[in-house]
Each structure stands twice: as structure tokens, then as C-alpha cells.
Amino acid sequence: MKNKNKIIVANWKMNGSEDLMKEFSQLTCSKHNDIIICPPFTLLDSAKTLLPNFVKIGAQNCGAEDKGAFTGEISASMLREKSVSYVLIGHSERRTLFNETNNIIFKKVEAAIKSELTPIVCIGETLSEKEANKTLQVLDNQINGSVAKIEPHEQVIVAYEPVWAIGTGLTPDENEIKEAHLYIKTKLNQHFNADIPILYGGSANSKNCSQIISIENVGGLLVGGASLKKNDFRAICNC
Ligand code: PEP
Known about the structure:
Elements: E1 7-11, H1 18-24, E2 34-38, H2 44-50, E3 55-59, H3 76-81, E4 86-89, H4 92-97, H5 102-114, E5 118-123, H6 127-131, H7 135-145, E6 157-160, H8 174-191, E7 198-201, H9 209-213, E8 220-223, H10 230-237
Parallel strand pairs: 1-2, 1-8, 2-3, 3-4, 4-5, 5-6, 6-7, 7-8
Helix pairs in contact: 7-8
Bound molecules: phosphoenolpyruvate.
Residues 11, 91, 161, 166-167, 201-204, 222-226 line the site of phosphoenolpyruvate.
């Protein structure tokens, strides 16, 4: 994605159904934003058939390996066969509930790139790390452990998601978002040949989306809860 369109990503998590996908077949967007919906694996086929053409399809995870005895895993190349173009990697729920380390995350990023998927790598601090003034240190560590190991010419998207803002209704103030995004941008610029889009995620909704998306260096939004309601998500797509 070389353009300067804002990128709006829906993370449905372990939610959604065929009925919800049918509702989203009516989704409209009048702005030049790039819209990506990441449903659960089981809805990828319906996403391809039902979603309007302007919507690109993403997955929420992929295996670190390409194939073999990894019961329950789905590889990046399998996702590619399902018309998936993007994959979320390192979401905080994967890091905490499924013990994904920077090392595992980097292997998944490599697997995604090898299968021509664009990884959307999630980074962000917990509340205790924020309170200990360690936000930038955490971001530094997460970037060094995953994104900064990618070849400089590769395409990647980074999502800054403060863990304490995910699903809580809390959001950082404008200056906090500005500071984190500037820090990430400066660091990524030292490594990559092109501008890497940096999304904000964490309790973004139809009311706060316009304000957040206009903050300097915010390239778009990663939306969880509010992406499950068609009207709310349409408002976010149009912000
Ligand atoms: C997320 O899970 O990536 C997320 C941003 O969730 P929410 O919008 O519900 O905070």
C-alpha cells in the first residue's frame, strides 16, 4: 500500500457469524480509506463471497511454520489460498493468553511475508508499564524483536495498541498518542526504505475516530468492539 489513504482494520476476534457477514455485505464507504476486515478463520470464505469489493480481507493470526504436524494451526500460505491479503500478528491477546514472544511473532511475520501477506504487527504497553513510565522502552523492545528484523524493503503495517485501552473504553490523550506514534515512526524510518503506516488501536469508536485519526502520524485505526456493529463501523470507515 503506497498511498496515503487512512487504513481502517476491523478485528472481529472470536465473534461473528454468517448472519453478521451478510449484514456487512451492505457496508458502504464514501471516503478514500482502505478498509480491511479480519473475521475468524471460519468466515473467510463468506467474507470473500459476501463483502463488497472495496473491502480487503485479513486474518487474525497465522502459524509460524508452513506445514506439518502442528495440530490446530493454519499457515500463511493456506490463508493466501483463501484470498487473504493481511494478517494481524502479535495482538496483545495472543501475547498474553497464548504466550507469544517477540521471537514467535517474528517467525510469524517472516511466514506471512514469504506467503505475500502484509503483516499488521501489534505493539503496545500494559497499564503497569505505562505507570512505570516504560512505554517507549516497551515499544522499542517489541519493535527490535519483530519488525526491525524484517528486510528494509518489505511491506508491513504497525498498530500501536496500548493494552490498557483495548476493550476498556479508555483511550490515551492526544499527546500520548502523538508521542508514541512519533517515536515509532522515527524508529521505523531508520530501518525501512518506505513510510510504514502506523495505526492506532484501543477503544476507537464512531465518536472518537475522527479526532484520533487526525493526530499526526496516525495512519489509520485498528478497531475491535466497534467493528462488530455495521452502522458504527460504517461511521468509522467514513471518518
Ligand atoms: C483490538 O482488539 O485490537 C481492539 C482495538 O479492541 P477494541 O477496539 O475493542 O478496544
